[in-house]
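Exercise: predict the fold of this chain.
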Amino acid sequence: MKLLTDITPLREIPAFRRLWIGSMLSGVGGAMTNFAMSLQVWDITHSTAAVGGLGVATLVPMLVIGLPGGTLADRVDRRKLVLVVTAGQTVVSGLLFAQAFVDLRSLWLLYALEAAASAGGALSQPARQTFIRALVPQQQLAAAMAVNRIIFQSMMIAGPALAGVVAAAFGVKGCFLLDAVSFAGSFYGVGRLPAMRPPKTANAKPERRGLALTGEGLSYIWRNRVLAGTFLADLNATFFGLPLALFPAINAQRFGGDPRILGLFTTAIGVGGMVTAVFSGPLRHMPRQGVAMLVTVSTWGVAFAVFAVAPWLWLTLLALGVAGAADSFTVVIRGVIVQTVTPDEFRGRVNAADWVVGAGGGQLGSLESGLLASVTSPEVSALAGGLLTIAGAVAIGATLPAFRGYRERREAAEPARPAASG
């Protein structure tokens, strides 16, 4: 059994390769902005609740726009939609740089710009997540999802580490500027993709309104117990076991608030995830994917419980690395399940729900952990979240046997692949 990730999709599909490279560059810039936003809010307020408030600023547009954004992705050219939104996101990053350059120190302006960036992501991500399934054949889907996960892990490693160095040398304005420049990668990756027009079934009944189509997508997810279990397992992990809002406070208490060490927190998660993303070959042969996802979610919870009580830097980073390793497997498995189970006419809407759950759960969890820490302590909040993640995984496995017993449908039909120009 091969341990290394299969990079065949990168070798054989030029459009996927360009998308991968462009997403890598843009993702690193985005990670630098996420780091800089948390650090700037902490520097202004010294409040874990205020840092957690960034989660609210992200979550509200995500919930309001995310699901309708998936409906839109099922009705328009998905490539054009992503390009238009990317242009708007570039402007937002430029405004973040401007406010830091003039040192406005306005908490509400930061929240507003975070909300604008989140709104852009809510519109573009459901469409962007359909690209892989449109470009890659079924037999290479698991490999493509694993290779795509390397983007996120590289972002987790390079983004915070680079942001910590840049912030220490030039302030957070340097991070925002590099993020604005990095959007060139996104334009490169998406600009030469073939047209990604909606499936014909999505336009078969033009009289149906967007709200009805959105409701239809949610109803499909609820009826499909495998998808429901997948989303619940991920929401359980991100809501309870992702205490990003606590990182600045724990770093300040244990390690003197050095921004370089704060950068290592997220980098450690990225390094752990990179290891499992690179050595994800066995995932191609994993039959019980529902059980596997529950195990990796539980491992994630254990790791953050250890992080909460670790007294030494090496153990803190090791625990975060284990969390990242478990998360990488979780996301690849989740992605394969979602892309395999979902028919094309629902893919934009299901991917929207997938993105809202994956990203929104983390933002809501950031608020939850920050508020709990403000009335207890950062350590108690992180420990409780880890233990609740484990309990939630056990409960989901017990109540959703269809998800627990899910096996990948190897016979799934090939997608209709548009011509990928070289």
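Check your answer against the key: Residues 14-45 form the longest helix (32 residues).
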